[in-house]
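Kindly inspect this today.
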Amino acid sequence: MNGQFLDFEKPILELEKKIKDMKDFAAGEKMEISSEIRAWEKKLEKLQKDVYSKLTAWQKVQLARHPLRPQTSDYISLLFSDFIELHGDRNFGDDKALIGGWGKLEGKHFMLIGQQKGKDTKQKLFHNFGMMHPEGYRKALRLMQQASRFRKPILILIDTPGAFPGIGAEERGQAQAIAYNLREMSNLKVPLIIVVIGEGASGGALGIGVGDKILMLENSWYSVISPEGCAAILWRDSSKAPLAAEALKLTAQDLLELKVIDKIIKEPLGGAHRNPGEQALILKKEILKVLEELQGLTPQELIERRIQKFRGMGIHYQIEEKE
């Protein structure tokens, strides 16, 4: 576990430690106990499957926030070649909460745009914990429009606790920047693939979340508000976040059932942080599969399908007036 584990993972950690101790003892004493070790490894695998198949919504939120979970920069290094990062919104500045640029995936050119939270304290401060300012949304849109001019697909990786709520962001038009992105993304003439790789909170996620296909990693979450924020509003008690997580229907499984997303991307047993390399390969396969499907559509078909997709979300009733 690399020293990082969650409360519900403690039984797994204890068993892993036991197996490690057995291996160290066998090596030190030059004893042959491989059959016993294999038996304990089978028990470990069974325990992992049992634990991770019964995760609550709150536990999935915790996994999505795991400090070792792969982020946009990890997927760039694991999947993309010849990545060229582009900076700035040509108006105010360069938002470090967002990474964007050209890259090649299996020889195919993509405009890659992704939120970056950072892993240690220094990185988190540099990237503002993945919380974008208005210039971040304008930077993202500038890059998307560039991709549209060159007729290249766009891949967007979402991982944010929300848009930055500071005074400066409001002064520079946070709400307007997000709303403008929603309109403009609806009319882009190239394939737009969205993947929620960790957290997808509020307008911070939706501001770069309009796409032809929306995918989510198995243990990610996507919601109008964080569980803590919801609990603070409804019960004035953020400790009720686990209850709020269940009520919000924010897991990938809930959102697939509600037809908000199109597909769930499987994670390695225990979560993406357990095996980032394997997770990257799974993600690549799904991205290329979706791209193949979307490349057969004309620009007008893409736009029409995208608009209808979002219009069709939710349930509404129409009451006709009686004469």
